[in-house]
Amino acid sequence: METSLGVVFLSEVLGSAMLLLLGGGVVANAILTKTKGMGTGWLLINWGWALGVFAGVLTAYKSGGHLNPAVTLGFLAAGNEEYAAGVPVTFASTMVYLIAELIGAMLGAFLMWLTYKQHLDAEPDPGKKLGVFSTGPEIRNPLWNTVTEIIATFVLVFVIMAAGRFTEGAGDAPANLGWLGALGVALLILSIGASLGGPTGYAINPTRDLGPRIMHAILPIKGKGSSDWGYSWVPIVGPIIGGMLAGVLGNLILP
Question: Which pTM does this prediction carry?
Answer without folding.
Answer: 0.94
